[in-house]
């Protein structure tokens, strides 16, 4: 793959006239992507979607919106470091927007990376999968398969694939190309650039059957390396690694801080986990400053910021060292998995603690149980209403659904997908 093709400011669905007009604006097309996402209703709705912990009355823990903003900040920093270094590494390629483009693309993609996630955090994704695997949704399997639909899209429901659909699909009454983002920004959110048929039973894939032609268009424009045809599979866009790293760093470190604020973890335990990222000489210097901060939450925030800075610098360095393998589509794993031994050990300690004490905390489990019941009830009613649209209750229920969702689709696959479009766009409160 080649940078001059990978960093494309062409827009999905935009015609030549719109492109000529855009070229006269002070903002770059990648910066316009960022602004377009910030001002969009789906992005605003993230403020009422769970990240990990249920939304408390006094909101001081992360929701999807605050998480996405913080990931975007880290993505911008990673993009700045990488962009500057690549510009110096490839001095003859002055027409490639390394400095101005990469940070803008990564920060925009970070904003959008969770926009396809349903309410109730990752437990919402699990609830949807469980409905089709173990719940009433099983009754639709044979009908979907009989019409040639891809049942795995629902059985392994994935928020990342749903984000790609949300950003690119032309819903009723909307413009061609969905959000009409640049090809590079769109590609930079696709963590798993393959279909559900390649997911090997895991909830990890990048596009539904309905978006296969769109992913082909994006991949052709950007020159993404195709790894398979049936099922369709591509190598990642290189900037996905930076978006993923920003997300991994943010949630792992911030979950520890949030758990400390909610008294799920004791202060000493949380502090010990964060201190594990530093060498002895670094820790002495950091502790000297930390001891001057009286408020424990502020002290934890200071330690957290130093750990994040360390991880961002290492992730950027790893990306630059692996540039050749990433462009060849042969790099394996995430950047975080390639951290130096001390940082990887500290990161894994945070991860183990999160699974043992945070994600199994009573308030987190309660959200999952509630989400399971709510999703099951909503899917039952919405799909059933579409199957019998002339029933009195069906007409009443369907009248509450936004006209942008196609509730009269001719296929069972399409009716289920329309129901998921509607439900995944909801907030925890709604």
Q: In what order do the strands lie side by side in the largest sheet?
A: 1-2
Shape: globular
Provide the structure class: mainly alpha
* Overall pLDDT level: 91
How far apart the termini lie comes to 43 Å
Order of helices and strands: HHHHHHHHHHHHEEHHHHHHHHH
What Rg is obtained from the alpha carbons, in whole angstroms? 22 Å
Largest sheet: 2 strands, antiparallel
Helix coverage percent: 55-70%
Q: Output the number of helix runs.
A: 21
Strand content: under 5%
Number of strands: 2
Provide the low-confidence segments as ranges.
none
Summarize the structure.
The chain is mostly helical and 430 residues long. The chain is built from 21 helices and 2 strands.
Search tags:
about 425 residues; mainly alpha; 21 helices
Architecture overview:
The chain has 430 residues and is mainly alpha-helical. It contains 21 helices and 2 strands. It has helices spanning 3-6, 16-22, 29-38, 41-44, 64-89, 98-112, 121-133, 141-146, 152-155, 159-168, 183-187, 212-222, 240-261, 267-275, 280-290, 296-321, 323-328, 341-358, 362-387, 392-398, 412-424; strands at residues 226-229, 232-234. Strands 1-2 form a two-stranded antiparallel sheet. The chain starts with a helix and ends in a 6-residue tail after the last helix.
Secondary structure topology:
Blueprint lengths: L2 H4 L9 H7 L6 H10 L2 H4 L19 H26 L8 H15 L8 H13 L7 H6 L5 H4 L3 H10 L14 H5 L24 H11 L3 E4 L2 E3 L5 H22 L5 H9 L4 H11 L5 H26 L1 H6 L12 H18 L3 H26 L4 H7 L13 H13 L6
Antiparallel strand pairs: 1-2
Helix pairs in contact: 3-6, 5-6, 5-13, 5-16, 6-13, 7-19, 13-14, 13-16, 13-18, 14-16, 19-20, 19-21
